[in-house]
Write a structure and sequence with these properties.
Blueprint: E1 7-11, E2 15-21, E3 31-34, E4 38-45, E5 48-55, E6 60-69, E7 73-80, E8 99-101, H1 111-130, H2 138-145, H3 151-179
Parallel strand pairs: 1-8
Antiparallel strand pairs: 1-2, 2-7, 3-4, 4-5, 6-7
Helix pairs in contact: 1-3, 2-3
Length: 186
């Protein structure tokens, strides 16, 4: 099987969408096979052949899907099956490195998006105050988790751990200030 291209997925109440990044796809080579529980994709482009198979976490309607081929992206929109129209916590039961959730497609009031942005803001503040964070810190691990598919659980854990990391850094700063005799410390 050819290597899978980078894919982002998103959802709305009645459908899921896949954004497949392929430069100059050959429109006539794009093949999509949708069943209730899986998607098979293949296409050729100026950079070679691209292909993937995914098993879906929930059911879709294999008769209701649309494909749009552009210069740098292929978009597939598939209707969720009757009874599966609630929000999906993930697209697939398995994790794939090449498959990511498209945070940009989410409504700004969505609590997962708000939590992800809060985490990024906290990370930026920490880096602004204390310089780059080491690669093996909890915050880096949390940031890496956000690239996964099970966003709800990961974001909840990340928010708790980021508050913990922030409190450790603040306590350390207070102790340093006390040791060197700065005024105004508790």
């Amino acid at each position: 099987m050819a290597a899978p291209p980078p894919v982002k997925w998103y959802q709305k109440e009645l459908f899921i969408g896949l954004l497949i990044d392929i430069i100059e796809p050959k429109k006539e080579s794009v093949k999509v096979d949708v069943t209730e529980t899986s998607i098979h994709f293949e296409a050729e482009s100026s950079t070679g052949k691209h292909e993937f198979d995914i098993t879906l976490h929930k059911k879709v309607d294999p008769e209701k899907y649309h494909i749009k081929v552009k210069d740098r992206r292929i978009k597939i929109v598939i209707s969720k099956a009757e009874g599966c129209q609630e929000e999906w916590s993930r697209l697939t039961p398995d994790k794939h490195r090449w498959l990511k959730f498209d945070v940009d497609s989410v409504d700004l009031t969505d609590e997962e998006t708000i939590a992800a942005r809060k985490l990024e803001d906290a990370k930026r503040r920490l880096e602004a105050e204390h310089g780059p964070l080491p690669k093996d810190t909890k915050i880096q691990q949390m940031s890496n988790m956000l690239n996964g598919d099970d966003l709800s659980r990961d974001l909840e854990l990340a928010e708790k751990e980021s508050k913990f990391c922030l409190s450790i850094i603040l306590n350390f700063n207070v102790k340093v200030a006390q040791k060197i005799g700065l005024h105004g410390t508790p």
